[in-house]
Amino acid sequence: MSTKFTSEQLKQINLGFKNGLTMEQVTTYSDTRFNSGQMEQIRLGYEEGLTEEQVKLYAKTELSWLHMKELRKAWRKCVKYEHMKKLANPKFSLDCLDYLISCYSSWVGDTSRSYIFSIFNLATNPNFNLEQMKEITRGIGSSTVWEYANPKFSAKQMEQIRLAGNHPGFMKYCNPKFSANQMKQIRLGYENGLSDEMVVVYAKPVFQSEQMEQIRKGFENGLSDKKVQSYADPKFDRNVMWQMRLGYEDGLSIDMVAKYAKSEFEWQQMAEIRLGYENGLSNEQIKIYANKSFSEKQMKEIRLGFESNLTLEQILVYANVDVHSEVMFFIRCKYEEGLILEKAKEIASYKIPRIELIWKNVKFQIAECINQDIDKSMIEELIEKFCDIKYIDDPVYSTPDIIYNIDNQKLSLCLDCCLRGMRKDEIALLTSSDFSIEQMKEIELGLSSKLSTVLVELYAKKSLSATEMKQRREELLKMKKE
Predict the structure, then answer these.
(1) 405, containing H or E segment
(2) HSE-up of 183 (CA within 13 Å, CB side)?
(3) Nearest to 30 by CA among 20, 49, 15
(4) How high does pLDDT run on average in the chain?
(5) In the chain, pLDDT over 90 holds for what percent of residues?
(6) Helices 36-47 and 7-18 meet at what angle, rounded to 10?
(7) For the segment 142-151, what is each residue's pLDDT rounded down to a tens digit?
(8) Mind listing the pLDDT tens digit for each residue in 352-369?
(9) To the nearest 10°, the Cα dihedral for 426, 432, 437, 439?
(10) 440 contacts 412 by C-beta, under 8 angstroms
(11) What's the burial of 453, exposed, middle or buried (CB within 10 Å: 0-12/13-18/19+)?
(12) What does the DSSP assignment read for 39-102?
């Protein structure tokens, strides 16, 4: 330990004498173990009229100068010596110390001081964090505070116990093995009128809070004990429980629900099967799509087909796992417009290259091109051009990097031109260079305005901006009219 004072420490000693402190008072902090900030707080305490006993309570080397400052100010807020002794603990964070002192000063004039200060004594425990302290002080007026003022409970758990209001049923579950969210589901069950026999079904640590919620809601919505028990099983996640509960609430039998509540299905697939039963589909119709190989979106398109009164023959055309759900949607909607069965089969059987890279509306355009007998090779050339995939060797990793060059906007523009009857040589001009989408639109406008390919070629140059192309296109159109 250094026996020499720093210049800042000497400054505090000199200020003490200068401001009229006695030798005994200055001696209290004339110790090299105090830093200058600590010395200042001790000096200020004396200068503000605190007694030696009051100053010495916080004049401890283990307290930071910021802790000392809070404690010095606390004396001005009428904190009693017995309570100050508890506060002068270096284990308190500054936030906790500030909060406790603020609470104390707000309670000083309360008529029920003895009760309130017993709560204060509960909260003044350095093992509590700030949020726990807040929950304890919020418990003033509630007998449950004595149940949860324990460091083993988190602040969120304390909150749930406080909100339960000493309900005799709930108090059995005041156990830290239950998370705050689990406690919440137990509390809500009692608040909403569930019996002990109902709550005990889900008040088990093995259930996640979201699973508890589904069981609780089942009882609250009037399901029988047998139906709730059929899904009150930890092996079912919350979404599976949700689908089972919704099925029961919509009047499905236990046998019906059991047909979709299987581990082979994702919960989204279960929802499609459930909706089929709820909307009056027969077992035979549901069997067509109750297949784990179908995605939930594919299941939806098949279900909606039955609900739209399509024939089984029509639906079987697209009820195939190899048909993309968005193509299924296209076919289903086109049936309503009079799409014939043979043409539907052609669309369903066509394998759109790189389909996962293509936007939904572009898929519809491709399907419509098939419907209108547009040359498939031209469609595939366009997809190849605008949905290009390159594999580049990575020097760091053994697997190659995949570079996607996807431009659905350009592909969509070209397909739209095909659907509007543009010739193959005109499409070729549109895609003859790496034009921007704005440049392509100017070329398309020229071709759509009945300018010949020879004239359009005059401005269809990569070197020209879209604005320059527009000017030349308008000049050519003007010349053509003249």
Answers:
(1) strand 401-406
(2) 26
(3) 15
(4) 92
(5) 80
(6) 10
(7) 788 888 999 9
(8) 988 888 999 999 999 999
(9) -80
(10) no
(11) middle
(12) HHHHHHHHHTT--HHHHHHH--TTS-HHHHHHHHHHHTTT--HHHHHHH--TTS-HHHHHHHHH
- Phi first, then psi, for residue 77 (nearest 5°) are -100, 20
- Tell me the two tokens of residue 36: 């200058």
Distance from C-alpha of 189 to C-alpha of 195, rounded to nearest angstrom: 8
The answer to whether the CB of 100 falls within 8 A of the CB of 124 is: yes
Q: How far is CA 371 from the centre of its chain?
A: 42
| Amino acid 458: pLDDT | 94
pLDDT score, position 1: 46
pTM for the whole structure = 0.81
- Please give the structure tokens belonging to residue 47: 């200068």
Amino acid in the structure at residue 398 = S
Q: What is the dihedral of CA 298, 304, 307, 310, to 10 degrees?
A: -80
Tokens of 40: 């200042």
Tokens 């009056």 sit on residue: 280
Residue 239 predicted with pLDDT over 60: yes
Q: In 360-386, which positions are buried (b, 16+ CB within 10 angstroms) versus exposed (e)?
A: eebbbbbbbbbbeebeeebbebbbeeb
- Amino acid letter for position 26: V
